[in-house]
Amino acid sequence: IPAGMITIIEGDPGLGKSWISVSLAADVSRGRLLPGQERALPPQNVLMLTQEDDLNVTVRPRLEQMGADLDRVYLSDQHFVLDEWGLRELEEKMMQSAAAIVFLDPMTKYLGGKIDMNKANETDEVMGPLVHIAHRTGCSIVAVRHLRKAGGSNRKHAGIGSINFIGTARSTLQVGENKAGQRYMR
């Protein structure tokens, strides 16, 4: 999950995308070693924006269970659309919280009804500015999204919406389940 860039976590419902987000948020808030790191970074602030999981029933209890520093995790279930105004509001929230990482869960809930998530030129109206916001702030933006109902063999095309989501992201983590019922992330 590179700093100042976009990462997508994608997978079918119920396989742990939101759980992974909360786990990462807890680790970042405490400065714990993350997968792939040779040395842990100091504790940093986290901004979690969710439209799917209830903050008090699901998100906060998971954070507490995972030992997050709740003084460093800023939660919001406020609904807004990533249009021109919403993008400015997001950047403001990122700056106010001094977040090192922000989670949008799920990304599609922040697109609004005017954006066709299947058209690259329309999704670029959101993803292009998000790239610039991430770069300007140095903040990692992690967008969670679901997979298409009709899978397909090409993993790059597995997520719902335009290929532009993957094309704009610097990294993608896909959550899955094998035939034996074991869950994995690749």
Brief summary of the model shown:
With 186 residues, the protein is α/β, with parallel strands linked by helices. Helix content is 33%, strand content 22%.
Furnish the topology, listing elements before pairings.
Elements: E1 6-11, H1 17-30, E2 45-50, H2 55-65, E3 73-76, H3 84-97, E4 99-105, H4 120-137, E5 140-146, H5 164-168, E6 171-177, E7 183-185
Overview of this protein structure:
The chain is α/β, with parallel strands linked by helices and 186 residues long. Helices cover 33% and strands 22% of the residues. It has a seven-stranded mixed sheet with strand order 3-2-4-5-1-6-7, sandwiched between helices. The longest helix is centred in the C-terminal third of the chain and has 18 residues, at 120-137. The chain starts with 5 loop residues before the first strand and ends with a strand. The mean pLDDT is 87.
